Amino acid sequence: MSFRLRRPKNRAGTGVQDIEGMGPPSAVRNRWRGWCHDRWFSGDCTMKTAMKMAFALLALSAGPALAIEPYTPVAVKPGNVVTPDEGLIADARAFLEALKSGNGDAIDAAIADKVTAVDGGLDLTFPRNKQVIGPFATIEDMLAALGLNSAEGLPVAMEPASADADKKIAINAGRQYIVDALTDGKSWGTDPMVKGAVCSSAYRSFDAKALKALVKKTGVSGSSWSYLDQAYDLRKAPDRNAEVAGTLEPNVLYPFDYDTDAPRGWQAVYLPDGTSGFAEFDVALFQKPFGGGVCFAKGKDGHWQMVAQVSTSL
């Protein structure tokens, strides 16, 4: 099937190089507020930085260390990594250049009229959901809708602004989200929520029901669980030379201990036996199995189009 119908344009002429609302994203980025918005769209806010901010939002006031019920960690499955064909690489590259230059016609041709928007939350026990965005009369409207979807809802300005100004913010947010997805260096892969598509990152799944049971058992919020790519030794005190409290194994979810006081740069983490130890945040490199990126499918004409956007909201 074809993934694109002809969309009427309300722009005069053809080959428009700088469509309305698609000036340099930096001109409007600093008006976003919320979780890392002022840096996320600039590319200065990496996923690591965004996660640190999200974790900080979840931290409670410091108190005495309290053990939790022993638990068996839930595994995070490897993502289904794929090697994209040369056609996809070429079309994605052309799409990226169009986004950077503001070539509205080329962007229009690269995005399907209906885009599946997949969204998840910081609480890992909540199921991801999806909806269809579009079709729209113009590519500006499509980008604005994608921008709103990727940025937890409405574009909130730091100061009063007109509806047109807010739309420009949303357009640039949608545009920049795709640019970031195509340049973050992640491996191409698949997402079970977008059947038959190839995505800019491979989604890592886990047993949400099992995690929900652990949340109930331990009393630790579903927003507090993270995993590591490599094994890491927790310390009995927030010091690199302190005695080892236990080892965190890779690719399983461990909960943060926000009831235990820790100095800046350190985080207490619960071990499976219910006790906790300290991790140096910038060394341990905790990750969340969040979905993110954009997905492509091949159309009848042989070219690849963006057919889905995957994001995580507060």
Outline the secondary-structure elements.
Elements: H1 26-29, H2 37-40, H3 47-58, H4 86-101, H5 104-110, E1 111-121, E2 129-133, H6 139-150, H7 163-183, E3 198-199, H8 208-218, E4 225-226, E5 232-235, E6 244-248, E7 254-255, E8 266-270, E9 276-280, H9 281-284, E10 293-298, E11 304-313
Parallel strand pairs: 1-11
Antiparallel strand pairs: 1-2, 3-10, 4-7, 5-6, 8-9, 10-11
Helix pairs in contact: 4-5, 4-7, 6-7
Question: Can you put this structure into words, describing what you see?
Answer:
With 314 residues, the protein is α+β, with helices and mostly antiparallel strands. 29% of the residues lie in helices and 18% in strands. The protein has helices at 26-29, 37-40, 47-58, 86-101, 104-110, 139-150, 163-183, 208-218, 281-284; strands at 111-121, 129-133, 198-199, 225-226, 232-235, 244-248, 254-255, 266-270, 276-280, 293-298, 304-313. The chain has a 5-stranded mixed β-sheet. Strands 4-7 form a two-stranded antiparallel sheet. Strands 5-6 form a two-stranded antiparallel ribbon. Helix 4 (86-101) packs antiparallel against helix 5 (104-110) and helix 6 (139-150) crosses helix 7 (163-183).
